[in-house]
Amino acid sequence: MQAENAMQDAFVAELHKALQHLYDPGELRKSRLLTLFSLDKHPTPLSALRQNLLNSIQALKPGSHVPDHALEWRLYEVLTFRYVEQISQKEVATDLALSIRQLRRREKQAVRALADYLWMRHRLDQRADYLPPASVTEPAATTDVPASDHENELEWLKDAYSSETADVAELIEGCIKTVTPLAKQSGTQIEFSRQEDVPPVVGVLTTLRQAMLTLLSTAVRLSCGGTVHVAVNSSPQAATVHIQHTGHGSDAIARENVESLEMAERLIALCGGTLELSKEQEHPSCLDATLVLPMADQWLVLVIDDNRDALQLLKRYLSGSHYRFIGTREPDKALSLAEEMAPDIIVLDVMLPGIDGWEILGRLREHPHTRNVPVVISTILPQEQLALALGAAAFLHKPISREALLSLLDRLLLHSATGSR
Predict the structure, then answer these.
(1) Spans in the chain with pLDDT lower than 50
(2) Sheet with 345-348, side-by-side order of all strands
(3) Is the C-alpha dihedral spanning 148, 153, 159, 163 positive or negative?
(4) Chain segment 328-365, per-residue pLDDT in tens
(5) Cα 222 from chain centroid?
(6) Is the pTM value of this prediction over 0.70?
């Protein structure tokens, strides 16, 4: 029993190390968990290990029957904030209304709970010989990573994650929240502005987030009590993020951040974007950077509904997705708008003034420019069979959830692309 307890303690230490370096391939590839979880022969072992840990944390999420104040929720939150989202101890402690000392105790409890789950799931009591306690508890070497290792890690990142779409403004707001404690320490203000209806961008979000955090934290350090200005705008081809600061940090701080800016530039390049530093900076401790990020391919969704609130709701649902919203409250203009805009999908209400949705559906099905456009009937009426009989591609019963809407649109888009409608 004593030997098993020692092995479990060693496993907790190894797990904690892996969680701390969850997104660091250089450290993660050293983890003994790869062998313990039989992932060392996996085609992409680091991705498999990371996903294993993320799935296991998610498995500890309490059910809806567990009270919000229960310890299970606190431990799950700590695992999520500290390791999945990699948020600093100070910020997590503030968010959870804990002292740093209390948070550290919670972290130990949370890692132990996750270790117990993984120990049972992988039956590690039968594989403990792979985890010698002495070698696990040795401190990790703190040598500099050779440039060739950086190259290998960047190459690995190209294939480690898949591209996703994201609302760039929401992504930056999350990054600003993360660096706010750093800004408060130096008395720096962060001002954020955004253009309305910026289309979503596409890229490796984990990589893009780390690049954004690097740029923002660099701007905060260089500002040294001034103001960091962040603005999001868009052009027909790309979204742009402009980061500039007032106030001047020391030249020493500027020199320290040269490598960070170079790494941010390379991370953004992995996402298909570019980082442009102003060449007109008169002072070496200034930062005037513009990120240019590729926009995601978008499909146009025309929503016809005379209810203003319903239009606003669907517009919000489609925000940040690969669908672009256009809506009208005037049913008599629906057909001409459909001809002009050539939407990929139409969402149509039934109870409309003057001309109802059934008649509009018939006209859309008869017109040569719109007859092949999928139409989704969305109504509170129980008329799914009638809608399908009249040529609708699908039916959504109000009230609509975002998940149901996006899932249906994705399915219709796939069917259209494969010609299986």
Answers:
(1) 1, 132-148, 281-284, 418, 420-421
(2) 323-328, 299-304, 345-348, 375-379, 394-397
(3) negative
(4) 988 888 888 888 888 989 999 998 888 889 999 999 98
(5) 27
(6) no
